[in-house]
Amino acid sequence: MTLLRDDDLTAAFDRAAPSYDRMTAANPGYHGHLRRSARRLCLPDEGSGLSVLDLGCGTGSSTRALLHAVPRATITGVDASAGMLGQARAKAWPSSVSFVHAPAEDVGSTDAAGPYDAVFAAYLFRNLANPDTVLRTVRDLLRPGGRLAVHEYTLSGRTVHRTVWNAVMRGMVVPWGRLHGDATLYQHLHRSVLEFDTAEQFADRLQSAGFVDVRVLPLPGWQTGITHTFLATRG
Fold first, then answer.
1. Is-contact 152 126, C-beta < 8 A?
2. d(CA 130, CA 160)
3. DSSP states of 112-163 as a string?
């Protein structure tokens, strides 16, 4: 299938937002991995006095992970999908958390333009038509020395990890989407990982965008070799 992009992908997320939120809510490992990646930002003093952008916040799972990691920070969640943001905004949040409706490509021209001490982006870059453009935008949104954490499905390049990904998606995730009338989106999510960068390639992409101190950290469990945390700094 052809991958969904831009308005087509946004519309698919709008339609699937309720089923997507239910599926992720039922998966404690999904939330545990997000919290681990958020903690890897290693922001000091629970984020006191700091401003953090959650780019591609979806239904708020990544925002919640940031809130666990830096409960004293000001957190701004941004997403292109009004449906996903609707799910996020319906949840209980402290006054330090806010949400902005905007595509990642346009965030620099919105109320969420920063600057930020840190940016967190979960499950975002493989869904972008122009990931390099957005990485440069993110770099510009960060203060000098600001930190970036990207939490993303990026395969290791080993056949076994590609096989595990296919098995999980075909056996569980795509059938869930089909059951709820959202098969097109979930088929896209399956293919998007297979056609995106390996972990090594995405690390190279970060360096090409001007980030320094790039590190690639694995996540535990069945997602080892499938999901990684990428840490980088604006030079």
1. yes
2. 28
3. T---EEEEEEES-GGG-S-HHHHHHHHHHHEEEEEEEEEEEE---S-HHHHH
**Which of 33, 80, 90 has its CA nearest to residue 60?**
90
Scanning 40-112, the segments in alpha helix (DSSP H) are 61-69, 82-89
pLDDT category at 47 given cuts 50, 70, 90 is very high
The angle subtended at Cα 121 by Cα 118 and Cα 126, nearest 5°, is 145
Structure confidence by residue, pLDDT tens digits, 81-139: 999 999 999 999 999 999 999 999 999 999 999 999 999 999 999 999 999 999 999 99
DSSP state of 47: G
- Confidence class for position 1, pLDDT limits 50, 70, 90: low
Burial of 114-143, coded b for 16+ CB within 10 Å and e otherwise, reads bebbbbbbbbbbbbbeebeebbbbbbebbe
Can you give the pTM of this predicted structure?
Answer: 0.97
The residue assigned the tokens 């990485």 is: 135
Side chain identity at residue 16, one-letter code: A
Q: Could you count the other beta carbons within 10 Å of the beta carbon of residue 90?
A: 11
